[in-house]
Specification:
The structure is a single chain. The protein is of the alpha/beta class. The chain has 8 helices and 15 strands. A 10-stranded mixed beta sheet has the order 1-2-4-3-5-6-8-13-12-11, with helices on both faces.
C-alpha cells in the first residue's frame, strides 16, 4: 500500500489535470556540461509559470517546477506540437549522479519520441542525485535527509498532464546509472502508474527483491556492460562518487530474473543483435502471463556509458522497447479501481 499523503496528493493533482487547471512552473537552472558537485544546492526559485518555447515545426519545450518538502524541483517537458488531441503517453528520463535533466536530453530520446507523438520529461535530481534506495549509499543532501523522489515523480506526472491539458494514457521511465537505479525503484513503487522501465548502466539495489511488491506487472529492459567499472554487472559495491559511498546493487541477471518471475514469464530466448562492436548479447523473457516483457542486453565492454555504436544504438533500442510496452491491458485491479472511482 502507498502512504496516504502521496496518494491524496496524486489524486488531487490528477483532478487538477483533468480539469485543465494551470499549475506553477519555473525555469530550469543552467549548469555547466561537467558533472555538478553534490554540495551545490539549487538556486532560490520564484515558482512563476514560464511560457513554452517552440519553433515552427519543433516540439514545445516547457520549463516546469514545484517544491517538494521545501526543496525546489525542476524538469523540462518536451511536448510534440503536432500530436493529435486526446490522451498522450509520457516518458520520464532520469540522469546519472551529478548531472542534470538537460544533459540527459543529449542522448536523443526525444528524436524518437516526438515524431511518435509521445511527450518526454527530463527532471533534475535534487542536488544532482536520485534517492534510489540502494543499501549502503551515503545521503548526499546538505540536510543529510533523503529526498522523496517517488512523491516528486508522481507530482511531475500529474503536473505535466495539467500543463498539457491532456490525460496521460501511459507512462514509461528511462534511467542511466543513478537514474537507472531510480527507474528500478519506480518499477517496484509506482507500478500503478508506470508500465515500463528501461535501466541503462545499472540494475537495482541489493536485496530489493525482499521489499519489491508491485501492484501491477511492469515491463523491464536492462542494458549493461559486463565489465562496468562503476556498477558491477554481477552485483556488489558501486564505485564511490567524489569520495562518497554509493552503496550496493543486485546483479543484472538477478534483477531481470526477478521481473521475469513477477511478470509470469516462462520462456527466455536469445535475441538477435546485429553485428556490433563491442559485442552485445541479448536475452528476452517474452512468454509472459501478464502481457509484459523483460529483456536484457549484456555489452562485452568495460565502459560505464550510454553506448551509441555501430550495430547497437542504446537510444534506439530503449525507445523501441518502451514504445512497444507503454500500452497496458487493464488488469482486474485497475478495473476495480476505476469502478470505485479511485483510479490514479
Amino acid at each position: 500500500m502507498l502512504p496516504l499523503r502521496p496518494v491524496l496528493r496524486c489524486v488531487i493533482l490528477s483532478a487538477f489535470a483533468l480539469l485543465g487547471v494551470a499549475v506553477l512552473g519555473t525555469a530550469v537552472l543552467v549548469v555547466p556540461a561537467a558533472a555538478r558537485s553534490v554540495a551545490s544546492p539549487p538556486a532560490p526559485d520564484s515558482m512563476s509559470l514560464l511560457p513554452p518555447t517552440t519553433s515552427a515545426s519543433g516540439p514545445l519545450v516547457i520549463p516546469m517546477g514545484l517544491t517538494v518538502d521545501g526543496i525546489p524541483r525542476r524538469w523540462t517537458l518536451v511536448v510534440p506540437s503536432s500530436a493529435p488531441k486526446g490522451p498522450i503517453d509520457l516518458v520520464v528520463a532520469l540522469h546519472g549522479v551529478g548531472h542534470t535533466g538537460d544533459e540527459m536530453r543529449a542522448f536523443g530520446l526525444e528524436d524518437f519520441a516526438v515524431p511518435a507523438g509521445v511527450a518526454v520529461a527530463y527532471p533534475d535530481g535534487a542536488y544532482g542525485i536520485w534517492n534510489d534506495g540502494r543499501p549502503g549509499a551515503e545521503v548526499l543532501t546538505p540536510s543529510g535527509q533523503p529526498t522523496d523522489d517517488i512523491e516528486f515523480l508522481r507530482d511531475l506526472i500529474a503536473l505535466s498532464a495539467s500543463q498539457m491539458q491532456r490525460r496521460i494514457a501511459a507512462v514509461g521511465v528511462v534511467g542511466f546509472s543513478n537514474g537507472a537505479m531510480m527507474a528500478a525503484r519506480v518499477a517496484c513503487e509506482m507500478s500503478d502508474v508506470v508500465s515500463v522501465v528501461a535501466i541503462v548502466a545499472g540494475s537495482a539495489g541489493e536485496g530489493f527483491q525482499g521489499q519489491c511488491r508491485p501492484d501491477e506487472a511492469v515491463s523491464v529492459a536492462v542494458i549493461a556492460a559486463r565489465n562496468d567499472p562503476v556498477v558491477p554487472y554481477a552485483g556488489g559495491t558501486v564505485a564511490s562518487f567524489q569520495g562518497h559511498a554509493r552503496g550496493r546493487v543486485s546483479g543484472v541477471d538477478a534483477t531481470t530474473s526477478f521481473w521475469a518471475a513477477v511478470d509470469g514469464c516462462v520462456v527466455t530466448r536469445d535475441t538477435g543483435v546485429a553485428a556490433s562492436s563491442p559485442v552485445v548479447l541479448g536475452a528476452a523473457a517474452d512468454t509472459c502471463s501478464s502481457s509484459r516483457h523483460v529483456v536484457r542486453y549484456a555489452i562485452d565492454d568495460t565502459a560505464h556509458a550510454w553506448k551509441r555504436t555501430a550495430g547497437f544504438d542504446t537510444t534506439a533500442v530503449v525507445w523501441s522497447f518502451v514504445r512497444q510496452e507503454l500500452p497496458r491491458i487493464p488488469s482486474l485491479l485497475q478495473v476495480a479501481r476505476g469502478a470505485l472511482g479511485t483510479a490514479p
